[in-house]
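#onboarding

Welcome to the new folks! Below is a worked example of what a typical request in this channel looks like: someone posts a single protein sequence, and someone else replies with the predicted structure as tokens. Don't worry about understanding the tokens yet, we'll cover that in week two.

Example request:
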Amino acid sequence: MSEEHNRRASDRRRELIAFMIGQQEFCVDIMAVREIRGWTPATPLPHAQKFMRGVINLRGSVLPIIDLSARLGFGLTTPEARHVIIVVRTGAQEVGLLVDAVCDILSVTDDMVQPTPNVASDAVRSFVRGILAVEGRMIGMIGLERILREQEAEAA
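Example response:
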């Protein structure tokens, strides 16, 4: 029975959106992605964390924009026209993630996801839920719930 369960788990496919931050590739579950849009300058918020770029008007709604590079500890992005905002939702919260470029849609099974190495810091392991080795590329799978949950706590 456990062999059948393992086979069913490995047959279950899910799609991920892969994107670039600097020279590194990351991905998020496509089910959390609402849209992908070009860079729009954000209105800064006073006393916000450095990774919080500000807010934009998205069809009448205020959408906070997080610089994912800064959030992951890689440093602030200098946004240009080529940058994109990935609008994601986890639970009731919707935010825009500023990334360099969207590069791929991946179809993966759970058995393709390797655990984040123990040598990584706690901060890295809290954001990166696993590593995919796909076609010679190493792609970090981002856990959006942690990025957004800490954002809610800091906004309160």
